[in-house]
Each structure stands twice: as structure tokens, then as C-alpha cells.
Specification:
With 373 residues, this protein is an all-alpha fold. The protein is 70% helix and 0% strand. The longest helix is centred in the last third of the chain and has 37 residues. The chain is globular and about 60 Å long.
Length: 373
């Protein structure tokens, strides 16, 4: 594949020594979109499916939210929106950055809040008045490595399967782009190669290839990477091609996985059109940010919202079960009030984790990792 710059743009070197584009001002709309995606997932966990949450409510969420449960069931697609955002952010943060710095940034971003959430959920589930199964100390220790999924160990946090997908994306991007040095051509070839590898993996039926190339989720990460290229140059035809192909493939996997899903804990009433529309929302929202259409959304509170998103995402599911039971079954509060107060309490807990864990440990861990040779 021959990649040429647009004729009306000055030619820039494509090698790893090319000067990085000056760091953009913080995209606060992206922080807001992160929180929207997290709230979508929370709505799904609290009112869009069955399973453990049914015990907390004392009845199916279909009875608690006769109308809204249909919309809440689409909230699981907030994960796909997260993956598109992640592709955009990782490409932006990895551009012009050495491998050590990239690794330090990612590890210090993920681990402190994750460790705190694992310990907190384990401690709460171990309380006698909380009727939830606690994991063994051995399993909890494995969970601290974030490798419980490939090792086949029970998860402390239900949402950590998405972190395992994120870690594999980071590894692929680091090896293929960050290590040799980010350039437009290299990123395009990374997206094209991963798209092809994921398609081949789908037909190969090889578990190892499934683990590495993640055909079900690859297109969302790739689409986000393509949107960052659009952010750098909105006239980049190759970047737009990556985005369009990624959306077409991504909606296919989303519909196949979630339409009339056979999971007994899920409500099998999502329509294929509804799924496609939510996936389109994720791509279009990140595209609007990439194109600068949402520059007006520059409120400082969006930065706070972005900071709360990750710890909120980690703790909201399992600890939300406990809060819902206390508020709805023990105190008798209506479903809608319980739902709102549970969201509010998990956001408050997220603020505490951000203030007293992330703000203190993240910079120290990043500095320590950057100093390591």
C-alpha cells in the first residue's frame, strides 16, 4: 500500500523521527462522553438484565422498570463506546512517546484505582451482613495482577473482562506503533493489518488467535485510532476509510452478539436497528469531537466527570448490588429513587477513590516507572 500526503499539505517525514504534533488542549467533550458510556453500562447492570441484580431488587428489573428496562438493556453497548474512545486516546497519548513513558502512563492510569476497587469490593463482600459470595484470598491475589481472565480465576470485579481487552490492545499498539515510533503510515498499516488479522482469526477457529486479535472488539479500537488520524487531518482519506470499515464490521459483531442473545440473565428484546444506532452513536460522537464540532463543550466540570469515570466503572456493579438492596428492600425506597441514589453514591465513592487513591498514587507510580531503566 502506497501512502502519499495530500497534495496541498507539506510533505513530512514518515519515519519514527518525525516531529510529533503539538499536544492538543484537553478534549473535555471526550471526558463527558466517557461518563455517558459509564452511565450506560450502569443502567444496564441495574435495570437492563437479570442475574445477581434481581436478588438486590427482590424481583426482575423488568418489573422495577416496566418501560425503561427496554432502553436500559442497550446500555451494555457502552463498552463498545468505551473501546472507540480508547482507540482515540491511546493513539493520541502514544504518538511521539517512547515505550517506557507509554507503559508508565498506562500502568499508572489503570492500576491504583483497580487495586483499591479489588480490595474494597472484597472487603465489603466479606461482611456478614452482605449476602454475596466472597472469593478466596488466593483468587483475590491473582486478581491484583489483572491477569485473572487468561488464568481462569474468578473475578472480583465483573467489569474487569473489559480491562483484559484494553490491556491486549495496549500491548498490540505498543509493539506495532509505539516501539518502532509512531507515524501516520505506521498507524495506517497497524489498523489495516489488525483488521485483516481479526477477519482471518474469525475463520481460523484458533483460541490463541482469538486472544491476540480479539475479532469481536478489534474494530472498535481500530475505529477510534482512525478517528484520531481524522483529528490530525480531517482530509485524510485513509483515516476515513479505516473509520467506515471499522463501523461496518463493528456493528456486525455487536448485532450478532446482542440481538436475541441467549444469555438467560439478559432480556432478549434488543432490536438489530437499535444496536446499530447505539454503535453509530459511539462512532459519531467521537467523530464530532475529532472534527472539533464539540469545542464549545469546554466546561471544567467535564474534566471532573472524566476523572470519576474509571473508578465509577470499576465499583458500580458489585457495590451497586449492595446499595440497591439496602435502599430498596431494607428501607423500602421506590425503584426510581433507589436507582438515582445508587448512581449518586457510586459517583461519590468514585470521587473518594480519585481524590485519595488516584491523585496520590498515580503520579508516584508514573514517576517510579519512568525512572526505571
Amino acid at each position: 500500500m502506497t501512502v502519499r500526503p495530500a497534495p496541498d499539505l507539506p510533505r513530512r517525514p514518515e519515519g519514527p523521527q518525525s516531529a510529533p504534533r503539538p499536544r492538543e488542549n484537553r478534549l473535555r467533550a471526550l471526558d463527558g462522553l466517557r461518563l455517558v458510556a459509564a452511565l450506560m453500562v450502569a443502567a444496564y447492570h441495574y435495570g437492563g438484565r437479570g442475574g445477581e441484580i434481581t436478588q438486590s431488587w427482590g424481583a426482575s428489573a423488568q418489573r422495577q422498570f416496566p418501560t425503561l428496562h427496554t432502553y436500559f438493556s442497550y446500555g451494555c453497548l457502552g463498552v463498545q463506546v468505551f473501546f472507540v474512545i480508547s482507540g482515540f486516546v491511546i493513539c493520541m497519548s502514544g504518538w511521539g512517546r517512547p515505550l517506557t513513558s507509554f507503559f508508565a502512563s498506562r500502568a499508572s492510569r489503570l492500576l491504583p484505582a483497580y487495586w483499591a476497587a479489588v480490595l474494597l469490593v472484597t472487603a465489603v463482600f466479606a461482611l456478614p451482613m452482605v449476602a454475596q459470595k466472597a472469593l478466596s484470598p488466593s483468587d483475590v491475589m491473582v486478581n491484583m495482577t489483572m491477569l485473572q481472565m487468561p488464568l481462569g480465576v474468578d473475578r472480583v470485579l465483573g467489569v474487569c473482562w473489559t480491562l483484559w481487552a484494553e490491556v491486549r490492545f495496549y500491548a498490540l499498539f505498543a509493539l506495532c506503533v509505539v516501539l518502532p515510533g509512531a507515524s501516520r503510515r505506521r498507524v495506517i498499516m497497524f489498523c489495516a493489518g489488525w483488521t485483516l488479522a481479526a477477519a482471518i482469526t474469525q475463520t481460523a477457529h484458533q483460541p490463541l488467535l482469538d486472544v491476540v486479535f480479539m475479532p469481536e472488539y478489534a474494530s472498535f479500537f481500530i475505529g477510534g485510532v482512525g478517528l484520531y488520524l481524522v483529528h490530525r487531518d480531517r482530509r485524510d482519506v485513509y483515516a476515513w476509510g479505516i473509520v467506515v470499515v471499522s463501523f461496518l464490521i463493528g456493528q456486525h459483531y455487536a448485532v450478532r452478539s446482542l440481538w436475541n442473545v441467549s444469555d438467560p440473565n439478559a432480556f432478549a428484546h434488543r432490536s438489530s436497528l437499535g444496536i446499530v444506532l447505539v454503535v453509530a452513536f459511539g462512532f459519531l460522537a467521537v467523530a464530532a469531537i475529532a472534527l472539533g464540532w464539540l469545542k464549545w463543550a469546554n466546561w471544567r466540570w467535564l474534566t471532573v466527570a472524566g476523572a470519576l469515570t474509571y473508578p465509577f466503572y470499576l465499583v458500580h456493579e458489585h457495590l451497586g448490588w449492595v446499595v440497591i438492596k439496602v435502599l430498596h428492600r431494607d428501607l423500602g425506597l421506590p425503584s426510581a429513587v433507589t436507582f438515582a441514589l445508587t448512581i449518586a453514591s457510586m459517583l461519590a465513592l468514585a470521587w473518594l477513590l480519585n481524590r485519595f487513591v488516584e491523585d496520590r498514587l498515580t503520579p508516584r507510580l508514573r514517576t517510579a516507572l519512568n525512572k526505571t531503566r
